[in-house]
Amino acid sequence: MTHPAFSPSTVDPADLDTRTVGRGPLLKRLTDRIVSSAQDGSRPHTLLVAPRGAGKTHTLQVAIHRAFKHRKAAKATLLLALPEDSLAIGSYADLLVELLGTQGPDVAARAREFRGDALELEREILDLAAGRMVLVAIENADRIFDAIDEAGQGSFRAWVETSTAVLVFATAPALFPAVSSRTHPWYGSFIIEELPDLTDADVVEFLAQHARDHELASYVQTSEGLTQIDNVAQVVGWSPRAWQIVAATVDRAALQDITSAADAVLEQLTPHYQQLLWQLPAGEQRLIVELARADGPRTVTDLAAAVGISNQSASAALGRLTTSGWVHPAKADSGDRRATWYDLSDPLLRNYLHYRERREP
Ligand SMILES: Nc1ncnc2c1ncn2[C@@H]1O[C@H](COP(=O)(O)OP(=O)(O)OP(=O)(O)O)[C@@H](O)[C@H]1O
Ligand SMILES: [Mg+2]
Predict the structure, then answer these.
(1) Where does ligand 1 bind, in terms of residues with CB under 6 Å?
(2) Predicted local distance difference test score (pLDDT) of residue 133
C-alpha cells in the first residue's frame, strides 16, 4: 500500500518515525518536552503551527511515539488524543466526552452518561489518570477552540490550571484569535512551534528511499536530479505532502519535464482544496480566486472592484479570511503604501487555482 499523503494518523507511528526526514531538532525538543513534563510536573503547552500538508499530524505522532519509548514517561502519562477529524464537538463538555471516548467502549459509555456535565467529566479524566500526567493532543485546535467558544476555552483553561495534571499539545494551520488575542483565556499559554520547510537535501533523502521506482530514486541523487527537484519545488513548494505525492506518482521522465510532475501533485491536491474552498461562503471563495489570479498581493479596493462588492464588505470578508488563515495582510513592494494589501497564506493554493483554470475547457 502506498503511504497516505492525507491521513498519516492511520499509519503505525513507528513507521512514520522511520520515514521521517528533516525536523531533527524540532522532534527532539518536542519529545524531551513530553518526557520531562511527565516527570517534573512542568506543563509547557505547545502549539504546532504550519500550513496544510507541512507535517503537523506526522510530527505530533512521532514526538508522542518517541516520548512513550521512555519507560518512565510512558508509565507517568495518560494520552488522550482527539482524532484529527472529530466532528461531534459543540461545547467544552463535548470535547471532554470525545477525549474520554478514545479510551475504549466502557469509558466512552460512562462519558456519554455525563454528557453536558463538564465538572463530572473532568473528574472522570483525572480518576482515569490516577496521578499520571494527562497529555491532551488536539489537532485542528483552531476549529475546536472556536467550537467550544470563549466560555468553553475559559473552563478548559481553568481546569488545566487548577488540576495541574494536563499538558496540551495542539496543532493548527495558522495562529487563531483564541491563542493570539489578549482578551482570550489561552492567550500566551502556548509555546508556538512552526514547522520549517523541508530542505532540498531532505527531499533527496526522502525520494531516494521512497520513490516509486529505482530509476527516480537514483536520478534524484545526481546533480541534474537536484536541479529538477528545485524546479518542481518552485511550483509545489517544500511540504512533505507534496513530495509524498511526487514519490508515489512521478517517474524520472515526469520529474525531468517539471510540468508533468507539478501537475501530478496539483491534481492529487484537487479534492483536498475543493473541500476546503467549498466550506467558504461564496463571497469569500470569489475573493480567494481573485487573489490567486494576481501573482502577488492586492489591495482591498482593487479586490472589491474585481469581485463587484463594496470596499466595506471586501474588508470585512478579508478580515474573516485572515482570522481563518486563508490570507494575510502583506506589504506591497511598490505602489500605494498606505493601502492594506492582502496575499494568500498558502502559496500552493495560487498554483492549484491556476492549474484548475488552465484545465477548464
Ligand atoms: N518529516 C517528514 N518526513 C517524511 N514524511 C513526512 C514528514 N512530515 C510529514 N510527512 C508526510 O507528509 C504527508 C503530510 O503530512 P501531515 O498529514 O502530517 O501534514 P499536516 O500538516 O497534518 O496536514 P493537514 O493540515 O492537512 O492536517 C503525510 O503523508 C506524512 O506522513
Ligand atoms: Mg494533519
Answers:
(1) 3-5, 8, 16, 19-23, 50, 52-58, 173, 206, 240-241, 244
(2) 98
